[in-house]
Design brief:
- The structure is a single chain.
- The chain has 9 helices and 15 strands.
- It is α+β, with helices and mostly antiparallel strands.
- The protein folds into 2 domains: 246 residues, L-amino peptidase D-ALA esterase/amidase, CATH 3.60.70.12; 117 residues, ArgJ beta chain, C-terminal domain (Ubiquitin-like (UB roll), Roll).
- The strands form 3 sheets. A 6-stranded mixed sheet has the order 13-12-11-14-10-15. The chain has a 5-stranded mixed sheet with strand order 3-9-8-7-6, sandwiched between helices. A 4-stranded mixed sheet has the order 1-2-4-5.
- Helix 1 packs across helix 2, helix 2 runs parallel beside helix 3 and helix 5 crosses helix 6.
């Protein structure tokens, strides 16, 4: 069966997901995605946290030359804050993939997610890696998406097809969602025939306006990785702008899925800031609102409390006149000109999707931040910690 989304939507890729016994739940926990070529171009962006995990250190080196032949991912352990021994474990994991598939070890990226501060059980991980390599399939994208889940309740996949070429991806993330990136593992694949430099430019811009604007709880992880690989199997070299648009669409879809599955959230909230003096101001205002616990509590309680929005705006250094602020909840302008607007009783917050629009009336720039109300009521049976 041909995959219609995910990392094996694009031609020239095989993937798998298996159970190695890393998770107490016994659920799948090791995935491999292999680029079958003919091109092996790659680009990646990583966490900006100064405390970063061993697999991030390894993968930064692996992708530095713009070539990645495969990526191996494990859930059930972050391999973060594990010192030189943890780095050696990442190297050994990449080496096992290379040995099983006949690849170059330095061209294998490694991603890990789970609890920080524990060594990975290599006696279980390495046999699992071997099994995952043996099970690689052009229809294995869904299995791979399942294997990278931690506290995620659903696998996250996306994909688009354009004129003879495709972009597909998978993501993991349900907690610690904050910018730079959004506390996640993401693998995106394409069969477009593009070089590493083009991939890098497109990925950085796509990440900037999607994953970097997903801000659930303000907690930045140690393991964030977004990896993009191009096989060139379609033989089509799309225009860079066209490819960037498709890539951004896939990343935006995955970012929305991350926010929707965030632990304990009852609402998915899009905070659109318009009329800003520049894009930085728009992002600053949107992010300040997104991180207001009082604002989140109001949304959870079904209260369009625009006063909490204005209070959040007021602590930023953005350019605005307090007497010229408009705030709308789901299309109802409850604050007009910095004071009482339409009747707040007209706002219906019973549905999961919430749209908050803020107009600063200070310029033409805009930005949208994705967040949720995160009630923290997310105790789940067999829940596992995640980065």
């Amino acid at each position: 069966m041909t995959e219609t989304t995910g990392v094996t939507l694009a031609r020239g890729f095989a993937a798998s997901g298996v159970t190695a016994g890393l998770k107490p739940s016994g659920r799948p926990d090791v995935a491999v995605v292999q680029n079958l070529g003919p091109r092996m171009a790659a680009a990646a962006v990583f966490t900006t946290n100064r405390v970063f995990a061993a697999p991030v250190k390894w993968s930064r080196q692996a992708v530095a030359d713009g070539q990645v032949q495969a990526v191996v991912l494990n859930s059930g352990g972050a391999n973060a804050c594990t010192g030189a021994a943890g780095f050696a474990d990442s190297a050994a994991t990449a080496s096992r993939v290379a040995a099983e598939l006949g690849l170059i070890t330095d061209n294998v990226a490694v991603c890990s997610t789970g609890l920080i501060g524990l060594r990975l059980p290599m006696d279980r991980l390495l046999p699992g890696v071997a099994e995952a390599c043996a099970r690689l399939s052009p229809d294995g994208g869904s299995a791979a998406a399942q294997a990278i889940m931690t506290t995620d309740t659903v696998p996250k996949q996306a994909g688009v097809t354009r004129g003879g070429w495709s972009v597909g991806g998978m993501a993991k993330g349900a907690g610690m969602l904050a910018p730079g990136l959004a506390t996640m593992l993401v693998v995106v694949t394409t069969d477009a025939d593009l070089d590493a430099a083009t991939l890098d430019r497109c990925l950085r811009e796509a990440t900037r306006v999607t994953f970097d604007r997903a801000d659930s709880d303000g907690c930045m992880s140690t393991n964030d990785t977004v990896l993009l690989m191009a096989s060139g199997a379609s033989g089509v070299a799309p225009d860079e702008q066209e490819f960037a648009a498709a890539l951004t669409e896939v990343c935006a879809d995955l970012a929305r899925q991350l926010i929707a599955d965030a632990e304990g959230a009852a609402h998915e909230i899009a905070i659109e800031v318009v009329g800003a003096a520049d894009e930085r101001d728009a992002e600053t205002v949107g992010r300040e609102i997104a991180r207001s616990n009082l604002f989140k509590c109001a949304i959870f309680g079904g209260d369009p409390n625009w006063g909490r929005v204005l209070a959040a705006i007021g602590v930023t250094d953005a350019a605005f006149d307090p007497d010229d602020l408009d705030v709308s909840f789901n299309g109802v302008m409850v604050c007009r000109g910095g004071q009482i607007g339409d009747d707040r009783a007209l706002v219906d917050l019973r549905h999961r999707d919430v749209h908050v629009r803020v107009d600063l009336h200070a310029g033409d720039a805009s930005a949208t931040i994705l967040t949720n109300d995160l009630t923290y009521d997310y105790v789940k049976e067999n829940a596992e910690y995640s980065t």
